[in-house]
Design brief:
The structure holds two protein chains of two kinds. Chain A is α/β, with parallel strands linked by helices. Helix content of chain A is about 50%, strand content about 15%. Chain A is built from 17 helices and 13 strands. In chain A, a hairpin with a 5-residue loop joins strand 12 and strand 13. Among the domains of chain B are: about 130 residues, no CATH class; about 220 residues, Rossmann fold, CATH 3.40.50. Chain B has a six-stranded mixed β-sheet with strand order 10-11-12-7-13-14, with helices on both faces. Classes of the chains: A alpha/beta, B alpha/beta.
């Protein structure tokens, strides 16, 4: 019996790791905000959501399969909650049962019986819930689950399981077979079905009468009694192992039921929270690995939206066969937010979830990397540049063709000329490997160099700045500029009282003109 | 002084050929006739100690104590042909298929010994008989496997081919066949014994086997639908128990015995009918072959470190002797374990040349060279691979070592007397087939006396035609005639205070090294001479 809400029958159970450095990516994309909303303080949901996002699919068919399951779940929130709490309660009850520390078959059997007793109740309830809700669900995943529950957990079967558990309490003594092992010692002890109680041979064996074939262990014979207990242990040991494995197997089934339902419940939570903020979502169209294609409208950073309690600024992007996205432009202009939204949407799509956009179609990627600025190593064991290079090296080693790399202000820890040189070399190499690179950078020398190269697979985006210095937090097409308009920020901080406006004679006038021409994507390069 | 073997046996035929149709397997150490262990004479032990081989032998016998290998190092083949006989076997044992066959045999024989030992210790006679039977079963299987494996491995050596023939005849003989058949039938019948046990409260009832479903099978079937396809259950492990039965088990056994009295009567008779079932020739082989295996195992790590070993060409009177890339195996073993480096050296004596006189700086590798020289001969004459790439050595009737022990500052006159006594004894017994390894002769006398005495000793050795190596401080001894070859422990040309541990054939260098060392410490003419102004 296998729960198949996340993977269709026959799909590989252990897909490739989408996120080789989950902690880094999680921190860079602020994944925790998202996970927190999904989990609503349920650690199990947090766990499965985090795991599933990290191990996204690279097969569009599996993603579409999950999307159908998720549509069912979003339409049947009550049923999902009920099924989820049934499975969770069973797993919690199992964890409460104390596991014997010593490997004693007798203790192990009695624990297994207690746990299985509980599981039998859960399985019975699961069957009746399945019967109640089956007609409401359409997806293959849920239909498989309900059909399996109906066919495999039928009452006569559950009855036989109860019978076995009753027998293993040994109401009429322990029957076993044995043979002679090395040194004529009993070996291969194995519990056998007891004979049916009847007159004659059996009752004689049951020891009502003295028999020459019966040994009575004397009351004070301590070692004799120890052996007696060991004998029973040996007899029931094979059964104890089978039973313990069975506990594990049923527990595995209920655990995967809990996990997969937990993931769906998390998605329901996320959907509810975004809807409350009137932030739109859609089911993405996954394109296969390989051909690069992004067609995106109204993409926003869901973590930001969840924190702001209102919709975040949306961005759009149309790109085909573009491999390098160089994002430059104003400080505090929404570049990082854009980078995050690209990464999060990719993760959500590959996990089979909806994405924070009005429309979203994109190629799948085999792995996803991020490189965001990091606080200085507090132990001061390494310099900042050294620490950056260390992380870039780790990415380089794990990089594969098609990998998506999100670089945010990388190599800013050295001077522009050297930083640009390293950036140029890294970028060229990674593009040749076949990676897809989003690079937010202030390294003008580098960005302008790429622009001058005229690569067909490069796109230039810029954080929008209106001529009056105001930021729209949108990212639009535009060639790199030699300024990041840090002065605006400076003025905002130091000259709050003086509103920013253009002066015909000031140097910023020409910059403003540049900015406008950039917004028009005409791409004149500044001096 | 060395072990001079009894040596009356002359090699008759090359193949250790069969006498009167009997298969002529004389063992893996002896070409013509199985010889008993000899008590290792003190001199042989001293030779091994002086050559630094004692720790090596000690190390390779660790874990093999039961074979008592030490006396085997004192069993010296009586001629070059007997050495070749061993070399062939050792080469065979370096082949994986042969080695695997022999290892399996050794392991099987060890198990047999353990089971017999257990049988002797048990108080319950039925149990004792059962372990005796187990041992016999293991023995039959082990010998049968050796015969098949070894035949398949197709050994090239005369010794192992003779063993293959011996095994074939042995297994085909009625004695072994009868033994194997009887043993296996009894074991089989005992394995078939099955019975039922019913435990309730403090009563155990024993009954003949009664067929009924195993609960384990039923339970596994019942829960099968919860297994995911790719899960494999871990195997069942039982605890190892004290081999001795307790009183309840013994009572259970006695009831089981009543179910099949005839079978257990056969078991009780078995140890009396077959008290010793092992063939003495194979028992001997089991021990003697470990001599090679132990040594070959030691070579594994040294070879992995890039050091070479080879089978020397051993001749009764070779025109020249040489070794390339040779080294001190004891030092190398230590260096490899401590991840140090090993320096290799060459030597060659041709035509009239008989003796190496080795000079050079203190701790520059002179003694190591002398040891390596001695080891090549000591190990080579045992039929073992020696350190080095290409080697030719004479068969030696004895290896005489004399390593001066300066660390005991006794009465100088007494020590000198002792040394000369020792030399007298050696030179009285040495022949042209003997080998001399001398280190630091006459360190306890004056330079001029040492020169005089050393000269006389060398002259006497040369008169006998004895080959060898003589380590000394005295450069003059390296030029006394065409039979003497000067070898020098060298220093780095760039920094004369750095030893290379290379010992090369060249004239003794006088004081170059000392001058360099002095220079380093600021002791030179230039540095010490008075300033012009002074």
């Amino acid at each position: 019996m296998r729960v198949q809400l996340l993977y269709p029958e026959g799909a590989p159970v252990t897909p490739s790791m989408l996120v080789p450095f989950p902690e880094t990516l999680g921190a860079d994309l602020d994944l925790e905000t998202l996970l927190g909303v999904m989990a609503r303080d349920d650690a199990a949901i947090h766990d499965v959501a985090s795991e599933t996002l990290r191990r996204g699919c690279t097969d569009p068919d599996i993603i579409l399969y999950r999307q159908r399951v998720l549509r069912d779940a979003l339409a049947n929130g009550t049923a999902i909650r009920e099924l989820y709490s049934l499975a969770s309660a069973a797993i919690r009850a199992e964890h409460r049962e104390w596991v014997p520390l010593s490997r004693s078959p007798q203790l192990s059997v009695s624990r297994s019986i207690r746990v299985l007793d509980g599981f039998l109740g859960t399985l019975g309830t699961l069957r009746s819930l399945a019967e109640r809700y089956a007609s409401e669900f359409r997806s293959e995943g849920f239909q498989h689950l309900f059909a399996m529950t109906r066919d495999q957990l039928e009452e006569p079967y559950l009855q036989r399981l109860r019978g076995l558990l009753a027998q293993l309490r040994f109401p009429r003594g322990v029957w076993m077979s044995a043979s002679l092992g090395p040194g004529l010692r009993g070996s291969g002890h194995s519990l056998r079905e007891p004979p049916l109680p009847r007159k004659g041979w059996t009752s004689r064996l049951l020891g009502r009468r003295r028999s020459p074939d019966t040994i009575v262990v004397a009351e004070r014979d301590e070692s004799g009694h120890r052996f007696l207990s060991e004998l029973i242990d040996r007899g029931i040991d094979p059964v104890a192992q089978v039973l313990a494995q069975s506990v594990d197997h049923v527990s595995d089934f209920l655990t995967s039921l809990q996990r997969e339902l937990g993931f769906l419940l998390g998605a329901i939570h996320l959907s509810e929270e975004l809807a409350r903020r009137r932030a739109p979502t859609c089911f993405p169209v996954p394109g296969p690995l390989g051909p690069l294609h992004r067609s995106i409208r109204g993409l926003y950073d869901p973590s930001l939206a969840l924190q702001l309690e209102r919709p975040a600024v949306p961005n759009s992007l149309e790109a085909s066969e573009s491999r390098l996205f160089l994002i430059t432009g104003a400080n505090q202009g929404g570049k990082t937010t854009f980078l995050r939204s690209v990464g999060l949407a990719q993760l959500l799509m590959q996990a089979g979830l909806f994405v924070p956009a009005e429309r979203f179609a994109a190629n799948l990627v085999p792995s996803l990397f991020s490189h965001f600025p990091r606080a200085e190593d507090p132990s001061l064991r390494r310099g900042k540049l050294e620490e950056e290079l260390l992380r870039l090296g780790a990415i380089a080693r794990a990089l594969r063709p098609g990998s998506l790399v999100l670089l945010n202000e990388s190599l800013a820890s050295t001077n522009e000329r050297e930083g640009s040189e390293i950036a140029r070399q890294i970028t060229r190499a990674w593009l040749e490997v076949g990676a897809e690179v989003f690079f937010v950078t202030f390294l003008y020398d580098f960005a302008e160099g790429v622009a001058r190269e005229g690569r067909a697979d490069a796109r230039f985006l810029r954080a929008e700045r209106l001529p009056n210095g105001a930021r729209t937090f949108r990212v639009v097409e535009g060639r790199p500029l030699s300024t990041a308009f840090g002065d605006d920020v400076y003025r905002e901080v130091f000259e709050v009282k003086a509103p920013v406006h253009l002066h015909p004679c000031s140097g910023r006038d020409s910059e403003g003109a540049e900015d406008r021409s950039g917004t028009d994507s005409r791409g004149t390069s500044p001096d | 002084m060395s072990a001079t073997p009894g040596g009356s046996v002359r090699s008759v035929g090359r193949g250790g050929s069969p006498l009167g149709g009997a298969v002529g397997f004389t063992g893996v150490l002896d070409e013509t006739e199985a010889t008993p262990d000899v008590a290792a004479p003190a001199a042989a032990t001293e030779c091994f100690r002086d050559l630094g081989l004692e720790p090596v032998v000690q190390r390779l016998t660790v874990g093999r104590e039961e074979y008592d290998l030490l006396p085997l190092f004192a069993r010296i083949p009586p001629c070059a042909s007997a050495v070749a006989y061993r070399q062939e076997i050792c080469r065979d044992l370096e082949r994986v298929e042969v080695r695997r066959a022999v290892d399996a045999f050794a392991q099987g024989m060890r198990a047999v010994r353990e089971q017999l030992l257990r049988s002797q210790k048990l108080r319950n006679l039925r149990q004792a008989a059962s372990w005796h039977l187990e041992a016999a079963g293991a023995y039959a299987a082990t010998v049968t496997a050796l015969a098949a494996d070894l035949e398949r491995a197709d050994p090239r050596s005369r010794g192992l081919r003779a063993l293959v023939d011996y095994l074939r005849n042995h297994l085909a003989g009625t004695g072994f066949r009868e033994f194997a058949r009887e043993t296996s039938s009894l074991r089989h019948d005992l394995n078939e014994v099955t019975y039922s046990l019913f435990v309730r409260g403090s009563r155990i009832t024993v009954a003949p086997f009664r067929r009924a479903t195993e609960v384990r099978t039923y339970a596994a079937q019942l829960f099968d639908r919860f297994r995911s396809g790719d899960v494999t259950d871990p195997p069942v492990h039982y605890r190892e128990r004290d081999p001795e039965m307790n009183h309840i088990e013994a009572q259970i056994l006695e009831i089981v015995v009543r179910f099949q009295p005839e079978l257990f009567a056969r078991l009780s008779r078995y140890p009396h009918e077959r008290p010793e079932f092992r063939d003495p020739v194979l028992v001997r082989f089991d021990r003697e072959v470990e001599f090679y295996l132990a040594y070959l195992d030691l070579l594994v790590s040294l070879r992995a470190a890039g050091l070479e070993f080879c089978y020397p060409e051993v001749q009764d009177s070779p025109p020249e002797i040489y070794a390339e890339h040779t080294f001190d195996v004891a030092l190398a073993d230590r260096q490899v374990r401590e991840r140090g480096t090993v320096v290799v050296n060459d030597f060659r004596l041709t035509g009239p040349e008989r003796l190496f006189v080795v000079t050079g700086p203190n701790r520059g590798g002179k003694t190591t060279f002398a040891r390596a020289f001695g080891q090549v001969h000591a190990l080579g004459r045992l039929g073992l691979p020696v350190p080095g790439a290409r080697t030719q050595i004479p068969w030696c009737d004895a290896i005489y070592t004399h390593f001066g022990r300066e660390e005991h500052p006794e009465d100088l006159r007494g020590r000198l007397h002792d040394e000369l006594d020792r030399f007298h004894e050696i030179l009285a017994r040495a022949t042209e087939r003997s080998l001399l390894v001398v280190n630091e002769g006459f360190a306890s006398t004056t330079v001029s006396d040492g020169l005089l005495l050393g000269r006389r000793i060398l002259d006497r050795a040369l008169a006998k035609g004895t080959r060898g190596v003589y380590v000394t401080f005295l450069d003059e001894l390296s030029t006394i005639g065409p039979s003497v070859v000067s070898m020098v422990a060298t220093v780095s040309p760039a920094d004369p205070t750095v030893r290379t541990y290379r010992v090369v054939r060249q004239p003794a260098e006088g004081r170059a090294y000392a001058v360099a060392l002095a220079e380093k410490y600021g002791i030179s003419y230039e540095r010490l001479r008075p300033s012009r102004s002074g």
